[in-house]
Amino acid sequence: MDRPDLARRMLMEAIGAFALVVAGCGAIIADTTRDGALGTVGISLVFGLIIMVMVYAGGHLSGAHYNPAVTIAFALARHFPVREAVAYIGSQVAGAVAGAGLLLAAWTDRPADLGATVPSVATGTALLYEVVLTALLMFVITAVATDTRAVGAAAAIAIGGAVGLDALFGGPITGASMNPARSFGPALASGTWTDFWVYVAGPVAGAAIGVFAYELVRGRRPTGPPPITSER
Question: Which of 39, 63, 165, 214 has the largest count of CB atoms under 10 Å?
Answer without folding.
Answer: 63
